[in-house]
Amino acid sequence: MTKSNNQTLRDYHRIEQAISFLHENFRNQPSLNQIAQAANLSPHHFQRLFTRWAGVSPKRFMQALSIEEAKNSLRRSESVLDASLEAGLSGPGRLHDLFVNFEAMTPGEFKTNGEGLVVHYGSHIGPYGEFVIAITKRGVCGLQFFENGKPDAALTAIRSSMPGAKFDHAPDKTRPYADTVFNGNQTNTALRISVVGTNFQVKVWHALLSIPSGDLVSYGKIANLVGQSGAARAVGSAVGANPVAHIIPCHRAIRATGLLDTNYRWGTPRKLAMIGREAVLSREPIPS
Length: 288
Hints:
Blueprint: H1 3-25, H2 32-38, H3 43-54, H4 58-64, H5 67-88, E1 99-104, H6 107-111, E2 118-126, E3 129-136, E4 139-146, H7 152-160, E5 166-169, H8 171-181, E6 190-195, H9 199-208, E7 217-218, H10 219-225, H11 232-240, E8 253-254, H12 268-282
Parallel strand pairs: 1-6, 2-5, 7-8
Antiparallel strand pairs: 2-3, 3-4
Helix pairs in contact: 1-12, 2-3, 4-12, 10-11
């Protein structure tokens, strides 16, 4: 691991500590000193680190993560999704954040558990910690976060959907994809994803791709959009089964009551980090 990667990972872990502390103590309105202490930093150093990572101060970031702001985002997303999902669910095309072409595995590949496919994989570090990314000739087929330099469980989760495939450790081949995934300003790279799922899961994942960066949508709304009104629980299960973290933005799905009562497969602090960072990068920071 390079010195730069070490620093990126240390920075994210401190941000994650701070967000976890804020998530648990937001009702008490903790001071900057208290938040910095939770991240084991001086207030001045923490303020600089957080602003460099998020683009705004910790105070403005927390305003973006407030329940009221989450509800505002849910309301904004209603009209956007109604307008965009008709096209988004009917076929590939330009989607939000990245140019993403979505293609499920063929019935033959699904039936043979990926037999004959070659999957290249590698471990990398991004703004939300360590992750394994896996690719085939048709696109990204897996992205899983992991902790403490131990990618085995993440790789096992990716392998489980394609037990017949041949897996090849090739971080040099996956690095260009890893560099693209978290670049919210990417405009030139066509990032394809190819995943395994039931028809219902694929519909839910395709719907998630139509949620603009910085916006949120409720599980119930997604259920309505995929023609399964009242199936919010089933949508939640499909969201939780997302094989390609962040690219298929399952972190943008929340309960209709607001943001802070949610869970996330790769940890609530990481989900809040993604939502908050996208909120402040996608529009003007909320005034102090």
